[in-house]
Amino acid sequence: MGKRTRSMAEFSFVSEETKMGLHKLGCVLALLLFAALAISNDAHGKSNLLAYISDSANASPAYWVAKERGIFKKHGLDIELIYISGSTRGIQSLIAGDVAFVGAVGTSAIYGKLAGGDIAIVNSLTNTLPYYIIGKPEIKSPEDIKGRSAAIHIPGTAADFALRLALKQLKLTLNDIKAVTIGTGTARVLAVTSGQLDFTVGQEAERVRAEQGGLKVILDMAKMKIPFQLTCTVTSRKIIRDNPDTVQRLVRAMAETVHYYKHNQAEVIKVLQKYTRGQDIAVLNKAYEAYRDLLVDDTYPTIAGLKSILDIQADIDPKAAKAKPEDVLDLRFVEDLKKSGFLAQLGTRS
Predict the structure, then answer these.
(1) Which of 149, 208, 321, 329 is the most exposed place for a label (fewest CB within 10 A)?
(2) Do 293 and 265 contact (CB within 8 A), yes or no?
């Protein structure tokens, strides 16, 4: 009998202390996103700009490969990539009309939608939460992180959500640790390997780099196989209405990129080296393998993962209680991949 896939609905944040913390988080995110809405007016977004939100080889590499290997151009797209650190900031830029597309995570897309952003997820690249808690060797057990200092990412990012979920599993909250906002995975690992902080959260590339620096895995969340909307492409409903063909071509380009990524390791590694500024090849090979195994062949979003995010958010946000995953999804483009025979042409199972 196979291992049971655990739903995030099993891990709801119900303590009053946690609800208060999430309420503060929701307020901050709402203010930031409403600020973006206020300045957006009728902005269409720079029609060829796509924001990727991490320099980690486990977060945004599919977009790098689509650009560097000419897959965007093959599909008639003149896409330019721009780096915006953090999914929350990426969604803010989309709502403000500064970019046309964002490679974001589901939490930020949902927060943006709940704050009034007219946005939608149009495809998915990864549908689970493959994070690790990594820290100093003297941390003997997961429970031993209580009272210690942690390098964290900004609210609304997948790394932030993963840490909160891990703390919930340990019956802890952010108030039980000394959280310091550092930012990207590379910076978070460096903050711990340099001795400034005690532990952090990261994906495979961060895990390998951390172990090379003398750290260890404290908790492997990847083994939980939790449904979660990780990397996905988000755009505005206005762009979908005005330029559906552009969106369709982008979705096709990303589906082809998934296929290319899984069958061209040497070429992909060259791209990873460029965008990670020459990161250690051993780290990149491990990151490549981990990301390859996570990539969704048909690029279909995880409705279960989005529902779980809404269920958790509903504890502190009445809007989330009334919302449905479909409110932040536009599935016509991924559904066309199968109906049109495009996936079959790639040799991809759908």
Answers:
(1) 321
(2) no
Gap between the Cα atoms of 257 and 348, Å rounded: 12
Which residue(s) pair with 104 in the sheet?
Answer: 232
d(CA 51, CA 313): 25
pTM of the model: 0.80
Query: Which amino acid is present at 68?
Result: E
Domain architecture of the chain: domains with CATH: 9-128+227-342 (3.40.190.10), 129-224 (3.40.190.10)
Amino acid at 341: G
φ and ψ at residue 120, rounded to 5 degrees: -155, 145
- DSSP β-ladder status, 199-202 and 132-135: antiparallel
How far apart (Å, rounded) are the C-alpha atoms in residues 117 and 93? 11
Confidence of residue 13 (pLDDT cuts 50, 70, 90): very low
Measured CA angle at 28 (ends 24, 31), to 5 deg: 135
CA distance 88 to 157: 6
Cα distances from 310 to residues 197, 234, 258, 320, in angstroms, run 32, 17, 27, 5
The H-or-E segment that residue 218 falls in is strand 216-220
Six token digits for residue 227: 């449904």
318: helix, strand or coil: helix
What is the spatial distance between Cα 21 and Cα 174, in angstroms, rounded to a whole number? 8
Tens of pLDDT, residue by residue over 237-285, are 999 999 999 999 999 999 999 999 999 999 999 999 999 988 889 989 9
Pairing, β 101-105 against β 49-52: parallel
Sequence length of the chain is 350
Measured over the CA atoms of residue 276, residue 112, residue 309 and residue 166, the dihedral's sign is: positive
Distance CA 138, CA 143 (A): 12
Q: Distance (Å, rounded) from C-alpha 345 to C-alpha 52?
A: 28
Measured torsion, CA atoms of residues 230, 228, 5, 219, in degrees rounded to the nearest 10: 70
